[in-house]
Design a protein that fits this description.
By secondary structure, the chain is α/β, with parallel strands linked by helices. About 30% of the residues lie in helices and about 25% in strands. A hairpin with a 2-residue loop joins β6 and β7.
């Protein structure tokens, strides 16, 4: 679980993670709730990713939950993905996810890195309890069945403190992004707050955004 402030660089960091993972040979699902798919593709291209080639090879999948919110067109769907995409209205898919888990997940839909830019958008279409229950009884078992790591962003301050605590307890770790104004400049930071079953360095680390949009740690 990732919690981030509005002025933080979680979005840029999520794209940097995706680009670096693709270059290392991992397969990526990037689920965009807040940005048009074309923007995601352009940003990844700026980071040195051959987007068209990797999409054709099914190494990069861009899942579009933004276009449908605008009412201006039909959402994009990865052509070779066989399993469902988490919908905005969670009650519409609960049975479908259970059926896919019982039937077994195809090999092509296993062992990816899945990134959600802002899963908090689900709170605009569902109440807090519904989102918490979906994460608990659907998303977590779904991720395990797919042998896939889910990195899910939630904008801070839009839900109750109870919601963040409940959802956070369901993930294996929590990463925080924040921004702070110093000397008339906005400084960017991240930390690994928790990591289940392991010790972690929870100190805040400073970030820097390069000209091409890549995010790096400042030593």
């Amino acid at each position: 679980m990732v919690t981030y402030e509005p002025d933080s660089v979680w979005y840029e960091t999520s794209l940097t993670i995706a680009a670096l993972a693709l270059k290392d040979g991992l397969r990526i699902e990037y689920h965009t709730y807040e940005h048009i798919p074309g923007e995601v593709r352009s940003s990844l291209a700026n980071l040195g990713v051959d987007v068209k080639k990797l999409e054709v090879e099914d190494k990069l999948r861009i899942e579009d939950s933004y276009t449908g919110q605008t009412g201006l067109g039909l959402p994009e769907k990865p052509a070779r993905k066989k399993v469902p995409i988490i919908p905005l209205k969670l009650s519409d898919s609960s049975i479908e996810f259970a059926q896919h888990m019982k039937a077994g997940i195809a090999e092509s839909d296993r062992r990816l890195l899945h990134i959600d830019d802002n899963g908090g958008i689900l709170l605009q279409y569902n109440d807090e309890k519904t989102v918490v229950n979906f994460v608990r009884i659907r998303m977590v078992p779904w991720a395990r069945a797919r042998e896939t790591t889910y990195l899910v962003g939630f904008l801070s301050g839009i839900a109750s403190e109870t919601f963040y605590k409940q959802v956070g307890s369901l993930f294996d770790g929590t990463i925080d992004f924040r921004s702070e104004e110093k000397e008339d400049q906005l400084q960017q930071y991240l930390r690994m707050r928790t990591l289940r079953g392991r010790a972690c360095d929870s100190r805040w680390r400073k970030l820097r955004v390069l000209e091409n949009g890549e995010v790096t740690l400042v030593d």
